[in-house]
Write a structure and sequence with these properties.
The complex is a heterodimer of chains A (115) and B (114). By secondary structure, chain A is an all-beta fold. Chain A contains no helices and eleven strands. In chain A, strand 5 and strand 6 form a beta hairpin. The chains are: A mainly beta (115), B mainly beta (114).
Chain lengths: 115, 114
């Protein structure tokens, strides 16, 4: 049971390049999330998904797109990277079944630098 | 997003002593959940403790306990008998009932000194 995994762990991009971050979970969770963590600001929600084929905007969605084609995977895309998107990105998932604890399980994070 | 405020950017504590981290939040909701997450230098986010707003009893998990004051919208974390492994950043987080979205505070860095 790997929990939540993220690929890649580190990435350096040049301004204007694109990339996709992959999140996978093996806990059969319905809900999945993408956060970014910046110094002094905690974690902020970018996008989230309440089930396969659905996505919704979070607090800071601009410049990002997401897709949830399979229940276990949640992809975060940057079409044209900007230095302001330099951050650590976390994926998380949670169980919404009866008796769930509302705990979000986090991946190990991806450190992205845009130069 | 709900506002979660952690007013202490950094705290330092001697090993075996007790430290208390503060957290306040702003909401008009009556039903919600509160969490403390720990982020050690490894960067992995780990749930420390959670509290349901409808429960008056404060949650405890081994050396970790909370002081939940609903009227004051306050949710502090007490770490007793601090250990070197407690060195980490601690985040307070809020979730409205059935919303499934977390709002995080800015975090408090705790350093445990040997």
């Amino acid at each position: 049971n790997a929990g939540v995994t993220q690929t890649p762990k580190f990435r350096v991009l040049k301004t204007g390049q694109s990339m996709t971050l992959l999140c996978a979970q093996d806990m059969n969770h319905e809900y999945m999330y993408w956060y970014r963590q910046d110094p002094g600001m905690g974690l902020r929600l970018i996008h989230y998904s309440v089930g396969e084929g659905t996505t919704a905007k979070g607090e800071v969605p601009d410049g990002y797109n997401v897709s949830r084609l399979k229940k276990q995977n949640f992809l975060l895309g940057l079409e044209s990277a900007a230095p302001s998107q330099t951050s650590v990105y976390f994926c998380a998932s949670t169980d919404r079944s009866a008796g769930a604890t509302y705990e979000q399980y986090f991946g190990p994070g991806t450190r992205l630098t845009v130069t | 997003a709900q506002t979660v405020t952690q007013s202490q950017p950094e705290m330092s504590v001697q090993e075996a002593e007790t430290v208390t981290l503060s957290c306040t939040y702003d909401t008009s909701e009556n039903n919600y959940y509160l969490f403390w997450y720990k982020q050690p230098p490894s960067r992995q986010m780990i749930l420390v403790i959670r509290q349901e707003a409808y429960k008056q009893q404060n949650a405890t998990e081994n050396r970790f306990s909370v002081n939940f004051q609903k009227a004051a919208k306050s949710f502090s974390l007490k770490i007793s008998d601090s250990q070197l492994g407690d060195t980490a950043m601690y985040f307070c987080a809020f979730m409205k009932s059935y919303d499934y979205k977390l709002s995080f505070g800015a975090g408090t860095t705790v350093t445990v000194r040997a």
